[in-house]
Amino acid sequence: MLKHTFFRSFVGLFLWFLGSPLAGYGQLVWTDPVFPRPDQPVTVYFDARQGTGGLKDCGCTVYLHTGLITDLSTQSSDWKNVVTSWGVANAAWAMTPVAGSTNIFKYEIKPSIKTFYNSGSATIKKLAFVFRNANGSKVGKDTGDKDIFIDVYNDPGLLSTIVAPGNGVSLVLNQGNTIPFSGKSSESATLSLVDNGVLLKQTQGTSLDHTLGVVASGNHLVEFIAETSTQRIVKSFTYVVAVNRPAVDPPAGTLPGISRPEPNTLRLALYAPNKPAVFVTGSFNNWALSDTFLMQRSIDGSIHWIDIPNVPASQSTLFQYVVEGGRRLGDPYSALVIDPDHDKFIPAALFPDIPVYPTGKTNGIITWVRPELPFTWSSPSYQRPEKQKLVIYELLLRDFLATHSYQTLTDTLNYLQRLGVNAIELMPVQEFEGNESWGYNPSYHAALDKYYGPPEKLKAFVDACHQRNIAVILDVVFNHAFDQSPLCQLYWDAASSRPASNNPWLNTIPKHEFNVGHDFNHESPATRSFVKRVLGHWMQTFRIDGFRFDLSKGFTQTNTLGNAAAMAQLDPSRVTILKDYANYIWSQDPQAFVIMEHFADNAEETQLANAGMLVWNNMNYAFNEASMGYTSNLNAIDYRLRGWLQPGMVTYTESHDEERLMYKNLQYGNSAPSGAYRVKDLNTALARQELIALFLYGMPGPRMLWQFGELGYDFSINTCTDGTVNGCRLANKPIRWDYQQAAARQQLFDVTRAMLDLRRTYPVFHTKEYQADLVTPYQKYIVLKHADFDVAIAGNFGVTAANITVPMAGVSRLYEYFTGDSLDISGSSFTLSYQPGQYRLFTTKRLPRPLKGFIPTGTQSPLAMEWSLNVSPNPGSGPRQISFELPEGTRVVLAIHDSSGRQVQRIFSGWMASGKQSVSWDGGHLPAGTYILRLGTSMGQAARLLIHQ
Predict the structure, then answer these.
(1) Are residues 14 and 131 in the same domain?
(2) Which of 132, 152, 172 is the last residue in one of the domains?
């Protein structure tokens, strides 16, 4: 879930048009009267630009959806007395546009709140709202995608509030500024405005408006006093005026961010050019705003810095920067932050001892300087996988494990190691807005999001991976930042809800069509410095092995907004930017992985690959067509067809962004004309994923698989939390570890595991000498050649039986890897019949078979071998001799099966002693074709391909 926090600059905060319907400008909702009571009418105003902004500039009729929170509500969001229906274009619920604005709307609730909602004897606590267009496809809600609530006042007597600049707000101002002030009371009272004890204005009535002139420097307490003969209410806010001080450069070597020149001294430095003043407030000064904590400013005006004494490294420290208008933000280089809205939903068992938010003392995100817990790295013999041999397992912790924790992920590594992957790619774990998210809405790029656990648990996960020679790759998001980011808020245009034109890091208007959030300017030295510092932090602190750069094609100032095709064209500036980042990473770790989600023209991706980077190669569509049983072209898996000398593509069939192959198999799979073979059948669909695995992992080059793909995950990427498929791409998805209990899914796991074991064990699967036919619509093959042995992979992607001819010159005998069969051939090729979805993997050297639950190559027990099952002659006709060797006496069943697995003839059934055995078979009356000879015993079974002529 994405969360947007809207801050207002000093100017935007005070654009008040007092006495007009626009008096709530800068707020999401407001009312007239200010203090709604149950027995009175009230007019509700809504500014579509605020909150989630879902109805901003919609040009549509805006409807309200409304109810109450009462004493009968069981929780704070339990609506009662709902008087509207969702998605119904009822004119009675339509709001009225306010004259002079295209985004402000009003609605009159009359003759009274109680009557309108028919609330009876219930005590009304709040009015509840969500605003929408006619069918509900566009929605206006509060920040964080929350419902909107307005307090209702039941108690009689005097009430008061500061409307502008707002209750409790602290402002940072300069001499010569003004503060437009507005205070309201619920009934006529003596209203007074006092600044540091000096009466500025006094009036009798329900409203006091005044413009304060900022003259004196230092700290100011402004009080709004409402007083009757029986009651007196005081509301207040503070402001501070910066004292002019001479510029002073920070000590040599000071970098923006947080450091400790001494154990008990905290040094803070903020890159903020052209900012006249920056204050620090935090746990060390009880969140006070005073000129004592005005930061020093460097001579060139770019760095604001301060040394704060008596802040021990052994205790947690919280702080914020406060800039003009009172905007508060954490440090851009924060390693952890505190969130007032979402931390309360993180259980202590997941992340213990999160500090309590200082409610009432500050607002917004806080930097948390947490004492670093000792951690000992224990993987000195770690061997990072070779780039060309990468098999990356991409996962989203939230949808992979119910605990969504690094600890549980560490406990799951045995599973991933057994599968055979050698790298794990974590979707973004940097601080993002909200708790539950894919992570592509980043706010603090250097901070670890607490939703997955504390830093030491991530370190332990990386360390445990390295002990298994598994690399850890982080998905990082440097195309954009979201509103909550301090890089946004430090230079922010509140009126337009976007970065200001003088923002050193971010573009005011994005430069390309695919942008979300706020677009980074990677031509800016400030951005380059920030990105490198953040990358270095993740590498140095957590020993990360590399990065996958999200939307790397967006790292450009070439303006292609509105022209998505132009964005993919060769962009020399973008290439220079990406090379600069890659070279920085390699300066820290020469073997680190640098992976780009790029999808640009081949001319550009070639330059990136030649520089040593990898690029994502999305083959979801092609493999999906093949998997469903339709015409397909898999040529894009071959890096040589791009003119490359090295395999620089990370090829995948599924990623977080792609529809699941199994879902489309079950929904849209093809069928044979007879109906006897249907891809939509679950077991058939799963078997076709085995075929996909052979061709995906059988070709040379880096690979990636998406979580649970090895078990045939069949929930759509657009599955909603209620189980429907309705565009809910970012919604939580079912976590299905129970798939392991299904035999057909376990077989897919075993085949995937076997292919990854072959890649890990034998150099032939990384050869540069290979040929393939991946273009023929249904029948495809791959031939790999190496000095050790050759490999032939063939498969029928169609839905009817077919022959496949594979070129294999100079070879006389082949061994089928999965069944252990041998095949004698002659000539320059061989042809076999394949049932729909059937696959075979032949080698010119006999390899140990990958039995279910097999142990990696070289450590199998003798019983895992084939007992030398053989049939001669093969191919042949007429009488045959079948021979095998049993390690001990056992009951034996010897039978012939067709290629679909159906038994067509039993040759022998009975007890046999240990040792060499021989059985004669006359060939029976079987039609010519390809069969499987199966030997079944109490110890297991063996099989051999039988070609009957």
Answers:
(1) yes
(2) 152
Looking at the fold, whether 291 and 338 belong to one and the same domain comes out as: yes
**In contact, 126 and 76? CB cutoff 8 Å:** no
Q: 617: how many CB neighbours lie within 10 A of its CB? A: 22
Q: CB count, 10 Å around CB of 442?
A: 26
Say if residues 489 and 433 touch (Cβ distance below 8 Å).
no
Strand 257-262, strand 265-271: pairing: antiparallel
Domain that holds residue 200: 161-241
Cβ atoms of 923 and 882 within 8 Å: the answer is no
Q: Over the stretch 359-376, which tens digit does the pLDDT of each residue have? A: 989 999 999 999 999 999
547 within some domain = no
**Secondary structure letter of residue 450 according to DSSP:** G
d(CA 920, CA 907): 9
Spatial CA neighbour of 924 closest among 885, 894, 889: 894
| Segments of the chain scoring below 70 in pLDDT | 1-26, 144, 167-168, 851-867, 899-901, 938-940
CATH number, position 307? 2.60.40.10
Pair (227, 305) in one structural domain: no
Distances (CA, A) of 577 to 332, 572, 746: 21, 9, 45
On whether both 118 and 170 belong to a single domain, the answer is no
The sign of the torsion formed by the CA atoms of 305, 307, 308, 312 equals positive
Helix, strand, or coil here: 755?
helix
Cα 692 versus chain centre, distance: 26
* C-alpha distance across the termini of the chain, in Å: 63
Q: Is there a single domain that holds both residue 131 and residue 182?
A: no
**Cβ atoms within 10 A of the Cβ of 121, count?**
8
User: What is the rounded CA–CA span in Å between residue 169 and residue 156?
Assistant: 27
CA 200 to chain centre: 53
Percentages helix, strand, coil for the chain (3-state, rounded to 5) are 20, 30, 50
User: Which residues are within 8 A (CB) of 359 and not within 5 positions of it... i.e. 6 or more apart?
Assistant: 340
The single-letter code of the amino acid at 298 is: S
728-747 pLDDT, tens digit each:
999 999 999 999 989 889 99
Residue 668: CB atoms within 10 A of its CB come to 14
pLDDT, position 419: 97
Pairing of strands 337-338, 366-369: antiparallel
Buried b (16+ CB within 10 A) or exposed e, 267-285: bbbbbbeebebbbbbbbbe
- Contact residues for 866 (Cβ-Cβ < 8 A; gap 6+): 820, 849, 942
**For the chain, what is the domain count?**
4
- Eight-class DSSP state of 765: G
Q: Which residue matches tokens 């022209």?
A: 563
Q: Which is nearest to 189 in space by CA: 146, 151, 219, 234? A: 234
Number of helical (H) and strand (E) elements in the chain, helices listed first: 15, 52
| Cis ω for the linkage preceding 165 (within 30 of 0) | yes
To which H or E segment does residue 711 belong? none
257, β-bridge pairs: 269
Residues 145 and 169 in one domain: no
Question: Could you give the CA distance from residue 848 to residue 865 in angstroms, rounded to a whole number?
Answer: 7
Residue 415 lies in a domain: no
Is 65 inside a domain boundary?
yes
Are 72 and 137 in a shared domain?
yes
**Residues contacting 226, CB < 8 A, separation 6+:** 158, 160, 183, 185, 189, 190, 191, 232, 233, 235
Which three-class secondary structure state does DSSP give residue 399?
helix
C-alpha 462 chain-centroid distance: 19
Q: Residue 26: what pLDDT?
A: 59
Q: Quick one: 78 and 193 in the same domain? A: no
Contact criterion met (CB below 8 Å) for 530 and 487:
yes
Q: What is the rounded CA–CA span in Å between residue 572 and residue 74?
A: 60
How far, in Å, CA of 177 to CA of 173, rounded?
Answer: 6
